[in-house]
Amino acid sequence: MSDVIGTIYTETVIYSATEAFAADVPYQTAIVALDSGGRVTGRISGERVRIDDRVSRVEVRDGVPFFRKIL
Amino acid sequence: MRPVAVIGIGKTPFGAFPDRDLRSLAVEAGEKCLKNGHIAPAQVDAFFLGNFAGPSFAGQNHLAPYVSTALGIHGVPATRVEAACASSGSAFFHAYHGVAGGFYDSVLVIGVEKMTSQPTPRVTEILAGAGDCAGEIKAGSTFASLFAMIARRHMHQFGTTREHLAAVAVKNHANGALNPDAQMRKVITMEQAMAGKPIADPLNLYDCSLISDGAAAVLLAPVERAAEFTDKPVRVLGIAQASDFVALDQKPDITTFAAVRRASARAYEMAGVGPAEIQLAELHDCFTIAEIVAIEDLGFAPRGEGGPFTLAGHTARTGSKPINTSGGLKAKGHPVGATGVAQICDLVLQMRCEAGDRQVPRHSLGLAQNLGGSGATCVVTILGTV
C-alpha cells in the first residue's frame, strides 16, 4: 500500500465520456481529501467507493492518480 | 457612473440548425436587436461578442470584427469576451461599464455559439476545456461529472434527493413548452425525469442542458437617452462579476459557489434590494443541481433548502419566485456563449409584458445569474422597470 492516503470527498460514475475515455465507461472519478492536506481529482480502481470511504493511491498513470478502497 | 438601460433585444431560436453557421446566427440576433432598439449600425459606438469556443467548434478566430462588420458596424472597438458559459454575461458586464463610465452611448452585445456541427463526444471534449485540463479533465472528468460530484456532496450534506433534481427538470420543461424559441418544447413527467439514461451518477440525461446553436443580442444606452430609442427601457440596477478557482478540487466547499455569492452580494448592494424583493429570475441551470445551488447562493432559500423549495413549487411559473420562465438552459437550450445575453433578453421580455403564454404577473424586478465552468466565473445582473 502506498503512503498517499485519503478520504473520498465526493465521487461519480461516468457513463458518457469524451472520445479519449470512451473505452473506459463506466468509470469512477472522485475528489480525494488527502491525509497530508489538499484535495486531488483521481480515478478509482477496483471496487466502487462512496463519500467518506478511505482510499490509498495505487498508481499514477500519465500524471493521473488512481485510488483504491482500503478494505 | 451614469444609469444604464437595455433599449433593444434580439434572439434567434435555439436548436440544431445544420445549415446555419456562427456568423449568420450572430447577425440574425444582431439585426433583430438593432431593429428592436431603432438604431442604425452606424450609431453603434462599441461592440462586444460573448463566445466560448468558436475557434474549436468552427475553426474561426478573430470573431468580434468578423461579426460586427457583417452587421455593417465599422471602425468601432469590437471585442470578444471568453469566460466559458459566462462569456456573454461577462461581455454584457463590460459593455455596461463602457456606457456607465460615459465612454459609449450605444453598445451592442451579442452572445453566440454554434455547437451542433460536432459529434457529442467532441462537444464534450471542447466543453471540458472550461475545466482544469491538467488535473480534473485529464483524470477523465466531463462537465456533467463535475456537477454530478457537486450533486453527490450536496445530497450527502443536506439530504437533497433525486426527486429534487427531477423537479427542476420537470418545471423547466413545462416552461420551455410555452416558449416558441425553445429547443425542447416537450413537457416531461417526474417518472421520466427520474428514469433518464445515466450520464454521470446521480445525473441522468434529463438533468443536463442541451447542445445548441443560437445567438442573442442586447443594446445598452444611458438611461438619459433611452427614450430616444424605446418606450419600454429596462434599467440595469445592479451588476457584478466574480471569479473563483477553475478546478473543482481547489474549492474549499463545492456545495456552494463562492463566485455566485460574491457577485450577487455586490449586485444586491448596488441595486439596493435583497433576494426577497426579486420577482423573477433566469438562473444558470446547466445541470439541475446548478439551479438548486444557485437558489441557495442567491438567498432565495436557505442553504440546503434549494431542492425542497423547488419541489414545493415556489419556483414554478405560478409560484412565489418564478425561475427560468424561458425554460432555462435545460429546455430553452444552451448555446454556451449566447446564454448570458439570452437570460437578459428573457427577463426583458417579461418586464415589457411581451412573454406571451409564459408571462408572469409580477415582473418589475428580475435577476439573471450566468455561471462559467464549475463556478470560476459568475455574472449577476439585476434589472428593473421601477
Task: For the structure shown, list the relevant keywords.
heterodimer; A: 71 residues; mainly beta; OB fold (Dihydrolipoamide Acetyltransferase, E2P); five-stranded mixed β-barrel; 5 strands; B: 386 residues; alpha/beta; Peroxisomal Thiolase, Chain A, domain 1; 2 domains; nine-stranded mixed β-sheet; two-stranded antiparallel ribbon; 14 helices; 35% helix; 18% strand; globular
Structural overview:
The complex is a heterodimer of chains A (71) and B (386). Helix content of chain A is 0%, strand content 55%. With 71 residues, chain A is mainly β. Chain A has one domain: OB fold (Dihydrolipoamide Acetyltransferase, E2P) (Beta Barrel). Chain B has 386 residues and is of the alpha/beta class. Chain B folds into two domains: 4-119 and 212-234, 3-Layer(aba) Sandwich (Peroxisomal Thiolase, Chain A, domain 1), CATH 3.40.47.10; 131-207 and 237-334 and 345-384, Peroxisomal Thiolase, Chain A, domain 1. The longest helix of chain B has 16 residues, at 143-158. The relative contact order of chain B is 0.20. The chains are: A mainly beta (71), B alpha/beta (386). Chains A and B meet through strand 1, strand 2 and strand 3 of A and helix 5, helix 6 and strand 5 of B.
Map the helices and strands.
The complex is a heterodimer of chains A (71) and B (386).
Chain A: E1 5-14, E2 27-34, E3 39-45, E4 54-61, E5 64-69
Parallel strand pairs in A: 3-5
Antiparallel strand pairs in A: 1-2, 1-4, 2-3, 4-5
Chain B: E1 4-11, H1 22-36, E2 46-50, H2 54-58, H3 63-68, E3 78-81, H4 87-100, E4 107-114, H5 120-128, H6 143-158, H7 162-176, H8 190-194, E5 198-200, E6 203-204, E7 213-222, H9 223-226, E8 234-243, H10 258-271, E9 280-282, H11 288-297, H12 306-311, H13 328-331, H14 339-351, E10 365-372, E11 377-384
Parallel strand pairs in B: 2-3, 2-4, 9-10
Antiparallel strand pairs in B: 1-7, 1-8, 4-7, 5-6, 8-11, 10-11
Helix pairs in contact in B: 7-11
